[in-house]
Amino acid sequence: MMARDRKWSILLGPVFSAVWLSTLAGAGLSPLGVRDDLHFSLEARGMNIDGSLPIYKDPNADIEDRCAALLWNRSTLSLSSHEVLIFEANFRIQGDIDGWMNMTDPLDDTLTYNQTGLEQMMEYKSGAIWAGYLAPWDKIVYAITVGQQYLMENTTLGIPAIVQSEGLHGFTDNGTTWPSPIGLAASFNAPLLTEAASTISTEAEGLGYSQLFAPVLDLSRELRWGRVEENYGEDPFLTSQMGRAYVTGVQSGRRRNVSSTAIARVAATCKHFTAYGSPQGGLNIAQVSGGQRELHTYYLKPFHYACVDALSIMTAYASYDGIPNVANTHLLTDILRNEWGYQYFVTSDAGSVDLLITLHGVCATRECAAKIALEHGLSGEMGGGTYTYLTLPDQIQNGTVGISYVDETVKTILRTKFSLGLFENPYPYPDYRSTLRTQATRDLLHQMEREAIILLENRNSVLPLSTNISSIALIGPQSDRVSFGDYVFYNASLNGISPLDGFKEFLENSSVQINFAEGCKLWSNDESEFPAAIAAAKKSDVAIVMVGTWSLDQTLLWTPGTNATTGEHVDLSDLDLVGAQFPLVQAIQATGTPTIVVFVSGKPVTNPWIQENVDAVIQQFYPGELGGLAIAEIVFGATNPSGRLPVSFPRSVGTTPVFYNYLKGSRPVSPGEITPNGTLIFGHQVKELLFYYSLNAEPVNA
């Protein structure tokens, strides 16, 4: 077998034996099974046999013509039907760079790859490639370059992959970390979010990424749910505005060295389609109950406004009204494709096609799950499961699944790739380091950190503090901690500034003394450190107590035995402060020292006593890298607190779900309450007692 023939045998699979190659030659066919008078030769597949350029390779051709031409080229391949279907399957299954790279050690910088693993990955899973790892940047660049170069130069049609990573509130591989989306929403500043999203896209683009899994447009109407921090709040309008701002920032512009037909540089991915933020019981991936009125009034609005031009959408794990979203024809075909005219790539969430078997119970086999996900949703399959779509070639061959569903799905993915200009330039940029963690990005982040902080209470104008006071007490388990939300990588907090360091930096040229005492741990009932905290408060002019919830990075959050109170799969039955935090606030307030409480959290905290008894309350949803400095600037008046609440604060978990845009007439009129001395007054809740801070709340006595 000639070396060239051996290469194609490896690429197209073991069925291409020497005998088969001889048979092809006798029939006047090339080793690819392509008639010699058709589209391109083996020696120069970048051009037709007559020297002209195939339409799909023409960067100036219309995108729809390029999609049609590429699918036509597929149909002219005289391969076995099984091999044609493998060709199709490549476009719908997510691959992973760990197929040819060793990504187990985030510090390892070895620039070598596994050739066999590369070939095997690209044979079956080359439509989109997951590369969202914590790794040295040059290793990521090397891995992506190797993968894309293989696809462009060593496969039949030379089709590049979409390369994917997370981007919820920053590019995750040691990029700049921004406030969690609920904090970004608190700024109510959509143009600023567009600028922020643009920097996130720029950091990813230079390294060779072409798709980010964000924004999340699930309405935060169920506060027990762990992923409240990932959303832009409870309101469809605000979520629509912030979602569109993010999509615009990520996608605007073009990759370098691509044609004018490209319309975006990185694909935003709107998720989770749809109604995912209101699971029954607040439990992640649980069913969402509702009808068509709720669907169209609330849940669909952000996606319709923000995502029709987004180059990707991700489906939700849950079911809506009893139908799994990953295979919901009404949502994914009737509404998304037919009513809205959505043309681009839809992907399942990780492992969600398998949930049709294991959770939803609508299928008994992988074949069934693949069939209904494809035919009911025209979507690709992400990894994280058993790769049910690998059953599709045989199913199409035996007539169980129609090839038209495959073609339509492939067309949406090709359309996204052409729209990104990947056929012209899918590679990382040589100067990628110049786009990462720039001073301009840091300046923009600083502005966002300030605008995201909300003043909720300010009795007797205790705020802002003057730099002429002699001392402050900085107390609480959030004071000397960098608390990022979920979807950051391991050790991302090392790039952040804690509040303690932020106050030190802000006050370094003043005479204000900082008396620090942690007081307690976030996760402990131990009150043994209270005396030191009380002493610090008593000898200070003002006490600042920082408490709240906490999440973890993507490594620790999923590690058995670690603790957190927010984040994906961390759902709660209680929204009060955990452990000794609330008693700590009460102990400091009891000293008589003016007390300011700062909630650092990923969701509302239900301790109304704090609002009623301390001198000032500030809400800082999980910040970004400069959050510790920004809170100091707010407290001392260097910046005015302009943030607003994107979610309502219930008085207790028992009054949830609670949101400002409830239907009129759904709140009875006879209130009950528990008085400060514990007396029970029985009645029925009314709006005024359901929540004490609501959307757009103005600061009190500011």
UniProtKB/TrEMBL annotation:
Residues 119-415 form the Glycoside hydrolase family 3 N-terminal domain. Keywords: Glycosidase, Hydrolase. One of its GO terms (molecular function) is beta-glucosidase activity. Transmembrane segments: none annotated. One of its GO terms (biological process) is glucan catabolic process. Residues 453-664 form the Glycoside hydrolase family 3 C-terminal domain. Belongs to the glycosyl hydrolase 3 family. This is Glycoside hydrolase family 3 protein.
